[in-house]
């Protein structure tokens, strides 16, 4: 399935950008694009906008910088605000850069205005709030303390929307980067710019009489023996826009999460197929009957969300229930199955849980000789990694285990999850024992 992305361009192409790169469209695509994708751009500054009915076909959106103020009420800016509201309702991925970063803050209820410490045109350094960045998020496995980025703006976000999470700041500006849920990532700097583009902008702004030669000299000095962390910014932005499922570590070590699952549950002579539902990949309903069992994996997304792919997955789960197919739900999958059967799910009331934990088996609910085997343990150790939970079970469900969130088995250095017992339990469910309770 071809991925499609849309770029809202709020800036005209400079002669340098046209001559060197073919225009700013190509600058963005060189940073964010991959082979086999379709990238469309609309020059919103000139009144070019997509039809609302066409927004659904895009997997992600980018709003560029602009020399215009995000707090203005010109027609094209107000129309772009309306589109952002629509994309928010659709829970589409939107990357906001500079002007786009400010405009999203405005739409979501924040405040935008003139930069209190003055304009910035330079290579700047921003500080990452590491505690605000969840592990395995857009940053990857290692979150840096700071990142260098090209800065080119005279306005700033003065006050974040209530729903926003601050991800970075600097000595000049309190809001350098923020996110809102899973669908907005906003960056004050320009991840797409390089030193040559900045130098061209400085020379043009100086020629227009808007800055002094001393200002230019100071700005160009920031580029001496320094470069923007463009590759890291590329990784962050692409991970956000494209919802990369497999972490760098998992891809390098196991070849992807698919292989992690198959190594745990698979056996010789079996066929295992993968559908990346987060990317809109689903089997045909007519093909469901040919499978003997199904697994729904974890996800960074909320099982109570209404993204199109989540709603479609719920529909398939209901179909599998009608067919009485075996379905193993893990983390997000555990919550999705609870949702479609009439239970309640939401944010974990005692906060996110990440670590090796011990869960207590409700032995009175477990039938001897069922999925657990002949001997049911009192407890099992398992890796926990979630921020949501099942609040209320469906009426038809039987509780098999519970835990105290903070009942740690031990540190990861001292203990391991009971992976073999979990493997036996899950394989017995999917392939063998039919009676559990």
From TrEMBL:
Q: Which Gene3D superfamilies match?
A: 3.40.50.880
Pathway assigned in UniProt = Secondary metabolite biosynthesis
Q: Which residues cross the membrane?
A: none
Xref: CDD domains: GATase1_1
Localisation: Cytoplasm, Cytosol
Every Glutamine amidotransferase domain range: 51-193, 264-412
Q: Which domain of life is it from?
A: Eukaryota
Q: Which Pfam families does the record associate with it?
A: GATase
The record's section on SUPFAM superfamilies has: Class I glutamine amidotransferase-like
Q: Please state the protein's primary subcellular location.
A: cytoplasm
- Homology family: Belongs to the peptidase C26 family.
Name of the featured protein: Glutamine amidotransferase domain-containing protein
């Amino acid at each position: 399935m071809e991925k499609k992305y849309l770029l809202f361009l709020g800036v005209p192409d400079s002669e340098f950008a046209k001559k060197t790169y073919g225009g700013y469209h190509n600058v963005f695509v060189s940073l964010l694009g991959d082979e086999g994708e379709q990238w469309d751009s609309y020059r919103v500054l000139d009144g070019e906008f997509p039809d609302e009915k066409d927004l659904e076909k895009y997997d992600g959106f980018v709003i560029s910088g602009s020399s215009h103020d995000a707090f203005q009420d010109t027609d094209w800016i107000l129309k772009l605000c309306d589109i952002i509201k629509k994309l928010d309702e659709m829970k589409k991925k939107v990357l906001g850069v500079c002007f786009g970063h400010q405009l999203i803050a405005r739409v979501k209820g924040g405040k935008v205005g003139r930069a209190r410490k003055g304009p910035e045109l330079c290579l700047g350094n921003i500080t990452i709030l590491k505690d605000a960045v969840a592990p395995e998020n857009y940053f990857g496995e290692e979150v840096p303390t700071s990142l260098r980025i090209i800065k080119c703006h005279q306005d700033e976000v003065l006050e974040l929307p209530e729903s926003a999470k601050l991800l970075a700041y600097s000595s000049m500006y309190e809001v350098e980067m923020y996110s809102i849920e899973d669908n907005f990532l906003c960056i004050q700097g320009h991840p797409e710019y390089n030193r040559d583009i900045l130098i061209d902008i400085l020379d043009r702004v100086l020629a227009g009489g808007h800055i002094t030669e001393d200002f230019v000299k100071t700005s160009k000095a920031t580029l001496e023996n320094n470069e923007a962390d463009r590759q890291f910014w590329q990784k962050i932005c692409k991970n956000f826009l494209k919802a990369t499922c497999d972490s760098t570590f998992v891809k390098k070590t196991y070849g992807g999460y698919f292989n992690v699952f198959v190594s745990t549950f698979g056996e010789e002579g079996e066929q295992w197929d993968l559908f990346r539902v987060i990317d809109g990949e689903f089997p045909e309903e007519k093909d469901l009957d040919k499978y003997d069992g199904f697994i729904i994996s974890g996800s960074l997304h909320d099982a109570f969300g209404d993204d199109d792919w989540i709603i479609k997955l719920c529909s398939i789960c209901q179909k599998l229930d009608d067919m009485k197919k075996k379905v193993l739900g893990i983390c997000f999958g555990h919550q999705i199955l609870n949702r479609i059967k009439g239970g309640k799910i939401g944010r974990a009331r005692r906060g996110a849980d990440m670590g090796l934990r011990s869960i207590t088996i409700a032995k009175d609910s477990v039938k001897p000789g069922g999925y657990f085997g002949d001997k049911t343990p009192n407890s099992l150790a398992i890796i926990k990694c979630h921020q949501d939970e099942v609040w209320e079970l469906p009426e038809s469900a039987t509780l098999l285990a519970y835990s105290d969130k903070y009942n740690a088995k031990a540190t990861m250095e001292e203990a391991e999850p009971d992976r073999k017992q979990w493997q036996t339990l899950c394989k017995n469910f999917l392939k063998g024992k039919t009676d559990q309770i």
